[in-house]
Amino acid sequence: MKNPYKLNTHYFGTHQIIARQINNISGETVLDVGCNEGYLKTVVGKKKWYGIDFSMEALKKAKKNGYKKVIHSDLNKLSKLKSLQRFNIIVFGDVLEHLVDPSKTINYFVTRHLKKGGTVIVSLPNVAHLPIRISLLVGKFNYTQSGILDKTHLHFFTKKTAINFCEKSGLTVKKISYSSNRFGLLIKIIPALGTTFGHNLIMICQKDT
Question: What is the pLDDT, as a whole number, of residue 79?
Fold first, then answer.
């Protein structure tokens, strides 16, 4: 099956925003949960990257892209990953919305594999994005092959529910950014517009002490 997701090289795209955030965080080890083909490593080369994904084909490409270690795992059926260490940074980039119980998954990794004082980056699709709101007003909620209404999405988030989700998972949200190829600059100038024009919510979090 052709992978509908590719590296977004736009300055205000999700991958680039996450990359800049990682570059500003101390610590050299990164665990990319749901790493796909390892796009993030291609734009953040300085860290030591480890990846987990359910697709063997994607993991082979992630390995070629420089991931130090890749692990094949179904994130809906977690068992203790004894071969994994603790990491300075754990990234959940557009993966949690695909899972049956995302809270269970994020708790699993944060509890077992995040170093003390480490950082968690969570990217979730923003269902309050203006085009989705307009579609709802005219009675439409049509699934697509990719994007916010990806047909494989099991959960949908607004800014408020995304923050609540992170907090219930034992995390404190320190910063929120919004990705948008079209409106990124506008959101940077007027951050309040992020909830309406942002495509993804990207949250920098730390574990509650």
Answer: 72
Domains, in order of start, for the chain: 14-207 (3.40.50.150)
Band of residue 2 on the pLDDT scale cut at 50, 70, 90? very low
Helix axes 102-113, 159-168, angle to 10 degrees: 50
- Predicted TM-score of the model (pTM): 0.93
**CA nearest to 133, candidates 181, 187, 202, 196:** 196
Burial 58-68 (b: 16+ CB within 10 A, else e): bbebbbebebe
Distances (CA, A) of 12 to 123, 162, 180: 13, 20, 6
Q: Are 58 and 3 in contact (CB under 8 A)?
A: yes
